[in-house]
Write a structure and sequence with these properties.
Elements: H1 2-13, H2 33-47, E1 68-72, E2 75-84, E3 89-90, E4 93-94, H3 103-110, E5 123-130, E6 141-150, E7 155-162, H4 170-181, E8 185-188, H5 191-205, E9 216-218, H6 219-226, H7 236-242, H8 256-268, H9 275-296, H10 312-325, H11 328-346, E10 348-350, E11 365-367, H12 377-390, H13 393-413, H14 439-445, E12 455-456, E13 462-463
Length: 471
């Protein structure tokens, strides 16, 4: 115990020897931070302590990538531009066909009435390449492809915005906001579900103002409606091949490789793997321009327009979409074109039935000579639809049902056409022949019909659900 008490006494009495100060230059009474920092570094050098090495300078932008820097308020923007002429084609469709497109037709096919007020000549075609398909803070859009029509230059301006590092998105997003603010509509392929939500999220993550709100034309939904009966996938590459008759070069990269190539560039700085990604993005944007012109081309009976060259199954889907949009007269016109092409292409015509509708399908088809003029049962249906649209409230209530009768008769006629799907737009509950009898028999066999409403019966066939009449 005594030894412990003695130790405590020595500690309290200050008997312990003080540590001598380390010899070194005296710290000057500096008032600025730079002077204090320099004095501390000199003291560390006198003690023989090596300072922390300065970070290595970031490597310069790869010279292999064809981008030019420009200074903006948000930082250095890396971009490049090129020009496409209106006469250039993607398959069989010229790029300039979008300039004279039918905006009303596009709004019907997209089921978006706000597109009817937009000028397709002032559209912005957008496609973004990202580091992944999932959302969240780790997914960024490192390459943004834009295209718009420049009336002064007489062509289409194509611009690509590149993000060399994950922290340098702000200049590209700021440039994108300016481009969106200067147009009437944004055209994309699956951009409503992926591209634009991702870009809006990146603006929020970088504390930038939100992108301007503009009407959106998503061509993926249009392709799914028009080519619904086709069995090929509705990807952009498949639509190019089957609709635009365009095959991409064999060295084109797939969408799955885009994120991997950008990750390889970030790890090692090898920019050679990004050159195919730039070409892939340019092909996507160029196809958007041609595809928008394809779907916006007015319908023509002579076949000079792309929609005029559509097969009867596609025309039937176009008529069905117009019926959903409430355009009964245009739906009847397109249905009449589909019926005419069935007879012209296959040498078949519907045999007139005994009912007041004047249409029989299925077994009622018989071969005819190509020299004979085609019968016009669908034309009589069209006139009946027009009278129903012009009449009072009572007849307008029956117009949707008659439009459904005219359009439901078409898929049965198209069973002999190559690529046509089975009739799925509805048969009245009660059998296959219930939809082709007199109107009173049809009303007794099934319920009334409503545009856009569907249900399934016991046999798994699609039938239109009952609903109060329109108007």
């Amino acid at each position: 115990m005594s030894s412990f008490r003695e130790r405590l006494a020595r500690l309290h009495s200050g008997a312990r020897a003080a540590v001598p100060p380390v010899a070194g230059p005296a710290l000057p009474a500096a008032t600025t931070d730079e002077a204090r920092l320099g004095a501390l570094r000199a003291q560390l050098d006198a003690l023989g302590v090596a300072g922390t090495p300065a970070p290595a300078a970031r490597a310069a932008f790869p010279a292999d990538l064809p981008f030019e820097p420009s200074q903006t308020d948000l930082g250095t923007l890396w971009s490049r531009r090129s020009w496409w002429g209106p006469a250039e084609r993607v398959g069989t469709v010229p790029l300039g066909s979008v300039l004279g497109g039918d905006r009303a037709l596009v709004s019907l096919l997209a089921l978006a009435p706000e597109l009817g007020r937009c000028d397709l000549g002032r559209a912005l075609f957008l496609d973004a390449e990202s580091t992944g398909l999932g959302g969240g803070a780790g997914t960024i859009a490192f390459l943004i492809g834009l295209c718009w029509h420049d009336a002064a230059a007489g062509g289409f301006c194509f611009e690509q915005l590149f993000v060399p590092q994950p922290g340098g998105e702000a200049p590209a997003l700021g440039q994108l906001s300016e481009r969106v603010a200067a147009v009437d509509v944004v055209v994309s392929y699956n951009g409503r579900s992926f591209d634009l939500p991702l870009l809006r999220a990146r603006c929020a993550m970088n504390r930038l103002p939100a992108l301007p709100e503009r009407p959106q034309l998503d061509l993926l939904h249009v392709a799914r409606r028009v080519h619904r009966g086709r069995r090929w996938p509705k990807t952009l590459v498949a639509v190019e091949k089957n609709v635009l008759q365009y095959a991409r070069p064999p060295d084109d990269v797939s969408g799955e490789e885009v994120a991997q190539r950008y990750a390889h560039y970030l790890r090692g700085g090898d920019a050679g793997g990004l050159l195919p990604v730039l070409s892939h993005n340019a092909l996507d944007v160029r196809s958007l321009v041609a595809l928008a012109g394809f779907y916006a081309e007015p319908l023509s009976e002579g076949g000079s327009a792309p929609l005029g060259r559509l097969a009867p199954p596609e025309l039937c889907e176009v008529a069905w979409t117009m019926r959903r949009a409430g355009e009964l007269e245009r739906a009847a016109i397109v249905a009449d074109q589909a019926a005419r092409r069935v007879g012209r292409d296959r040498g078949l015509r519907p045999r007139p039935g005994s009912s007041r509708t004047g249409v029989r399908s299925g077994p009622g088809l018989r071969a005819r000579s190509r020299s004979r003029p085609p019968d016009e049962p669908a034309g009589r249906m069209r006139e009946r639809l027009r009278r129903g649209a012009r009449c009072g409230r009572a007849r307008r209530r029956r117009a949707p049902a008659r439009a459904g009768q005219a359009l439901r008769a078409l898929p049965a006629c198209l069973r002999t056409c190559p690529g046509a799907r089975p009739a799925r737009h509805g048969r009245v509950r009660g059998g296959a022949g219930a939809a082709h009898g007199p109107p009173r028999a049809q009303a007794a066999a099934g319920p009334r019909f409503r545009v856009g409403a569907e249900s399934r019966n016991r046999e798994g066939e699609v039938a239109l659900a009952s609903a109060p009449p329109l108007g």
